[in-house]
Amino acid sequence: MSDAIGRREFLQSVAVIAAASRVGGQAPPAGEWGASVLDIHLHPRATVEGNVLHLDGSGVTKAVLLTGANAEDRAKQTVAAHPSRFVRFASIDMTQPDAIDRLRMAAKNGAIGFGEIKSQVAAAGPEMQRLYALAAELNLPITMHFQEVNQPNSPGTFNTGLKKFDAMLKAYPKTTFIGHADAFWANVSADYAEDTSYPKGPIKPGGVTDKFLGDYPNLYADMSANSGNNFLNRDPEFAAAFLVRHQNKLMFGSDCSCADGRGTSGRGASAGRCIARATLTMLKKLAPPDVFRKIVWENGTRLLKM
Ligand SMILES: [Zn+2]
Ligand SMILES: [Zn+2]
Questions:
Q1: Measured in angstroms, how far is the CA atom of residue 279 from the centroid of ligand 2?
Q2: Any idea what the Cα angle at residue 271 is, between residues 65 and 37, rounded to 5°?
Q3: Which of 47, 94, 115, 159 is least enclosed by beta carbons within 10 angstroms?
Q4: For residues 80 and 216, what is the distance between their CA atoms, to the nearest angstrom?
Q5: Which helix H or strand E contains 99, and what residues bound it?
Q6: Beta strands in 85-190 (DSSP E)
Q7: For 24-58, how does the pLDDT look when each residue is reduced to its tens digit (9 = 90+)?
Q8: C-alpha torsion sign, points 189, 202, 257, 280
């Protein structure tokens, strides 16, 4: 290889790296976590500035607002007021007869994904399969709430049947799924019996969540809420290896209900603490720096083409 070619290739690779970092969201200042942070799972607050308050308080750069189709205006106002800090997804109860039309309209009006979808149906049921087809057609991801156990804060069961979800991952290869909630994270362990929401103690290797993330390129993971936080804490040694194993598939999210990113006025699992802070602290502790950056910024901004 001549020097000239070597130099040309070098310059090309520099250009590729520069372009990649521009695509990566003009990486804003790193802030207190040592990296830009995307919160992939934030529900809109009562006011536009309430949303900003949670980001600023928790050291988060940017967030995906997961918004019910009936409350879209608030999310639209927030994105319009702070376009560098918010994007939005749209959700709806998939049992509503006009669900598909409403979601199609939301995508036309600026939603860049669907979710969180939390419907009291089987994950392989006809209502959900219509959504998987729409998401493939529009090339937008779906954040799915998988819950097999009734909870006081979340009564009912939602998108049931995660253990057999490989059938859907296979049937809809062009649909991008983002898994979330207690059944998703509890099923990292092979012994999950669907009898409790937040199992404690050592993880038994071979659970479906671990397996599906490895086997299906169209499955990603949202690490938000008590469910994601419980997974990181119940068996930190297993979790550290899992973070490395699926480093291109995992995305930080909070699902936090606190007011200020510091734990004030939080409900349920956010009572007295900000889950964003708790999970970022744990991720920072368990993941090597390059993996941390992928999980808190690069994977999400790449997937959402920010
Ligand atoms: Zn949820
Ligand atoms: Zn919080």
A1: 10
A2: 40
A3: 47
A4: 35
A5: helix 99-108
A6: 86-91, 114-117, 142-145, 177-180
A7: 445 566 789 999 999 999 999 999 999 999 999 99
A8: negative
